Each structure stands twice: as structure tokens, then as C-alpha cells.
């Protein structure tokens, strides 16, 4: 049986890429009975007499899956934020980072609109802060070519989802990476202060030797699925030192001889990141149970 990857899902059809061709397929009826939904990014076996009439027969094991955007087997999340319009928001960025880390997806941070920003000095300080935490941070400005080359080098051979709030330039960046995409963008509404661009379906585009999903991004930034003991694992700089904590399962809040708190005190971990961690921990601990 031929093997391929679903690159688009639309109106009940799955578009499977295999050996240079795309096959339009339907899912087997058994998937519905088993409550399995094929996702963009799935490795599948399929059968097809031609490129218009095929059937997805089986779905390979997933290394991860996102609910929204509905994509499987994601390697990397390009988290885009901006220096201005909308203003850089480290709390929101940390929220995105935690959700991405919780799904075992490697984050890549891109900060747009850096040039001419009166906050440029602050942005460079934030770049240093996040690099110290273990992240790759790329700044883009009007002279995009250098940044684009660097971003392209991170896309090769990976499935990447693009995430970030409206108006930061996600679609604009994708159009610069591949002008043939011609993804529709709208200027930010001055009165609302947010972008109006909406993407209607998930599709993987081939860019720079990798596959990139132009998606609606994370619809919910709440930590509904995350438990308190999982949260420290979502901060890479905590992972580096928490084996030195006195207590196993240390939540790095009030416990004595906590290596994370010691690292915050001596400046090895940024105090702002730690404060955001405490906010997220309280949010998880006080959320209402779901039944």
C-alpha cells in the first residue's frame, strides 16, 4: 500500500502527498465508528485508482496532536510576536511557550516590527532574556533578508505551525518566505487594534524544504489540560536545575532548598519568567474542575 502525508483537510476530503503527487481521498467508514479523525500532518496508508478518488486506510502513530489548529506530528512552533502594533507582551509570549512546550513541540520565537520602534533597546534585552532561557529568538525589521534566511534554515525538514496573536504579521511573514502563497492579509483595524485576517482551513505549504501550516493559531490560551506538576517541565531553564531541588516534585513556590528559586535569586533565571510561572501555577491550582 502506498504511504503519504495528509497536507490538507477540507470538506471531508483529505489531500495526501505521496511521491510528488497529491491524492484526494476520503476516510474509511471505520474511522467514524472508532471516533478517529485523520489530521493534517498524519502519515497514512491509502489506496487510489487515480488522483481524485482515493481512500485513507490507516493512520500512523502520532508523536503529538493539536486540537486547534488540528495538526499532528508537529516538530516546531514559530511563535510570532511584535515590538509594536500590538506592543510586545512577554506574559502572552510565555503563555504561548508553555502551551507549545506542553505538547513537546520545539519553539522558535520571531519578533517582528523591531526597526524604528522606540522600544528597540527593550526588545534586544528581551531577546537576551529568552536566549538565556534556552530559546532561539530572531528579530525581523524592514531589512528582512537576513532574518528570512535564518528563519528558512529552521524550517528545513520540519513540520512547523505558526502561532501568535492577530496583527503581528504571521501571514505577511509567510508571504515573504514564499511569495507564491499570496495569503490574504488585512491591515490592523485602527479602532479594534487587532487583525481581521482569518484562515478557514489547515493546510501544509512546502517552504524552504519543510512543511508550514498557515493556521488560525491557538484558539484557547488557557491551561485546561495542564496539571501543576507538568508546568515546571514547560520552562527549559527550570529543567536545567530542578534535579538539584531538595524535594522531588518540587513546585518551586514555597519549598525549602529549591534550586529554581536559588537560580532566580542569583540571576541565572529571569525573575520575570519566574513571576509568570507563579501566575500560571496559581491559575492551574484555582481553575474549576471540569466534569
Automatic annotation (TrEMBL):
A Pfam family this chain is assigned to: RsgA_N
InterPro entries: G_CP_dom, NA-bd_OB-fold, P-loop_NTPase, Ribosome_biogen_GTPase_RsgA, RsgA_GTPase_dom, RsgA_N
UniProt GO MF annotations: GTP binding; GTPase activity; metal ion binding; rRNA binding
GO terms (BP aspect): ribosomal small subunit biogenesis
GO CC terms, sorted: cytoplasm
Zinc among keywords: yes
Annotated cofactor note: Binds 1 zinc ion per subunit.
Family annotation (SUPFAM superfamilies): Nucleic acid-binding proteins (SSF50249), P-loop containing nucleoside triphosphate hydrolases (SSF52540)
Keyword Nucleotide-binding appears in the UniProt entry: yes
Listed HAMAP family: GTPase_RsgA (MF_01820)
Subunit relationships: Monomer. Associates with 30S ribosomal subunit, binds 16S rRNA.
Name of this protein: Small ribosomal subunit biogenesis GTPase RsgA
Species of origin: Thalassobacillus cyri
Amino acid at each position: 500500500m502506498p504511504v503519504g502525508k495528509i497536507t490538507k483537510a477540507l470538506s471531508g476530503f483529505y489531500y495526501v502527498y505521496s511521491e510528488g503527487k497529491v491524492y484526494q481521498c476520503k476516510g474509511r467508514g471505520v474511522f467514524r465508528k472508532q471516533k478517529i479523525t485523520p489530521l493534517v500532518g498524519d502519515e497514512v496508508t491509502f489506496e487510489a485508482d487515480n488522483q481524485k478518488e482515493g481512500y485513507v486506510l490507516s493512520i500512523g502513530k502520532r508523536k503529538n496532536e493539536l486540537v486547534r489548529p488540528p495538526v499532528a506530528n508537529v516538530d516546531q512552533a514559530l511563535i510570532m510576536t511584535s515590538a509594536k502594533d500590538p506592543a510586545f507582551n512577554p506574559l502572552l509570549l510565555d503563555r504561548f511557550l508553555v502551551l507549545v512546550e506542553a505538547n513537546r513541540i520545539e519553539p522558535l520565537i520571531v519578533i517582528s516590527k523591531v526597526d524604528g520602534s522606540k522600544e528597540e533597546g527593550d526588545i534586544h534585552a528581551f531577546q537576551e532574556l529568552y536566549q538565556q532561557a534556552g530559546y532561539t529568538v530572531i528579530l525581523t525589521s524592514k531589512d528582512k533578508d537576513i532574518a528570512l534566511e535564518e528563519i528558512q534554515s529552521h524550517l528545513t525538514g520540519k513540520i512547523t505551525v505558526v502561532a501568535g496573536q492577530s496583527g503581528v504579521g504571521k501571514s505577511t511573514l509567510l508571504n515573504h518566505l514564499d511569495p507564491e502563497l499570496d495569503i490574504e492579509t488585512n491591515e490592523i483595524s485602527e479602532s479594534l487594534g487587532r487583525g481581521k485576517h482569518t484562515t478557514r482551513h489547515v493546510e501544509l505549504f512546502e517552504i524552504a524544504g519543510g512543511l508550514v501550516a498557515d493556521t488560525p493559531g491557538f484558539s484557547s490560551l488557557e491551561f485546561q489540560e495542564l496539571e501543576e506538576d507538568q508546568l515546571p517541565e514547560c520552562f527549559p531553564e527550570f529543567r536545567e536545575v530542578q534535579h538539584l531541588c531538595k524535594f522531588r516534585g518540587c513546585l518551586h513556590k514555597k519549598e525549602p532548598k529549591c534550586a529554581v528559586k536559588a537560580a532566580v535569586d542569583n540571576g541565572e533565571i529571569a525573575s520575570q519568567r519566574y513571576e509568570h510561572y507563579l501566575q500560571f501555577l496559581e491559575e492551574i491550582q484555582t481553575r474549576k474542575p471540569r466534569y
